[in-house]
Amino acid sequence: MPLLFEEIDSQTSALGEISLRRRRIPAFGDRDIYEVKLGDEFLMSSMFVEAEEALSTLGLAAVQGDKLSVAVGGLGLGYTAVEALKDDRISELFVVDALDTVIGWHSDELVPLGKILNADARSHYVLGSFFDLATQPEIGFDPNCAGKQFDAILLDIDHSPTEFLNPANAGFYTSENLGLMAESLKPNGVFAMWSQNLPEAEFESLLKTVFSRVDSHVVPFYNPFQDTESTNSVYVCVKGEC
Fold first, then answer.
1. Residue 53 belongs to what H/E stretch?
2. CB-based burial label for 51 (10 Å; 0-12, 13-18, 19+)
3. Is the pLDDT score of 198 beyond 90?
4. Residue 153 class from Cβ within 10 Å (0-12 exposed, 13-18 middle, 19+ buried)?
5. Which residues contact 26 (CB under 8 A, 6 or more apart)?
6. What does the pLDDT read at residue 153?
7. 9 phi and psi, to 5 degrees?
8. Which of 36, 55, 84, 202 is surrounded by the most beta carbons within 10 Å?
9. 65 by DSSP, 3-state: which?
């Protein structure tokens, strides 16, 4: 009989102790549930992935053209990256994460989606701070091609534009730094971002100082713990032609 709970790995990181766990909840069916915790805080669970996948589908739906270059900020359990790879237009995908532990879980296939990412030649792991690379467009997200521009940048790191995984991330959410990140987008390129909260009007106004179009999407999903519908949000922003 499978274990109902197992801690697969736990490592010290720059942000604190980060752990990967697997559990089964018989009332929710015969499947493994993967969880990531940072200290005592739950970061993600494979039970709730609809909005992480919607980050890719909604973001890429706004992108024009073929042979797309895409950057994903935040690897997590891999759902945003794997959903992006379902788009046949993508020619290369760079997944940026600041924690080598998280990249290692995928490289070593300790999480189910690691096998998919490892098998797809379009997929590349990048160890580094998304926020540092985003605000240094002369370096950018491709370690082998400094200053490369992308068709889309998909971001899922902080809890929301005002609730941060790391307090140091707060400085990214300004017109200046969002504008620097936009330099890594091609003309008409797309920036999309996940948030655990409903769309925030103040952040939408901030995005409009940088991007020519900003659309906010509410993504509903069923929460079995509360037996009710929950929501996350995805902001989708399009850069102007010049």
1. helix 50-61
2. buried
3. yes
4. buried
5. 4
6. 99
7. -160, 150
8. 55
9. coil
What residues contact residue 95 under an 8 Å CB cut-off, 6+ apart?
Answer: 71, 72, 75, 81, 117, 123, 124, 125, 126
User: In this structure, what DSSP letter does residue 14 have?
Assistant: T
Instruction: Please state the pTM of the whole predicted model.
Output: 0.97
* Strands of the chain, DSSP E: 5-13, 16-23, 33-38, 41-45, 68-73, 90-97, 123-127, 150-155, 185-195, 213-223, 228-238
**Percent share of the chain, pLDDT over 70:** 99
Sequence letter at residue 240:
G
- Any idea which residue has 């709970």 for tokens? 5
Give the whole-angstrom CA distance, residue 189 versus residue 195. 20
Distance CA 97, CA 71 (A): 11
* Averaged pLDDT score across all residues of the chain: 96
Instruction: Please enumerate in sequence order all residues whose Cβ is within 8 A of that of 23, keeping only pairs 6 or more positions apart, or say none.
Output: 4, 5, 6, 32, 33, 35
- CATH 3.40.50.150, applies to 48-238: yes
What Rg value do the Cα atoms of the chain yield, rounded? 17
The enclosing H or E element of 208 equals helix 201-208
* Distance from chain centroid for Cα 209: 23
pLDDT one-digit tens code per residue, 162-171 = 999 999 999 9
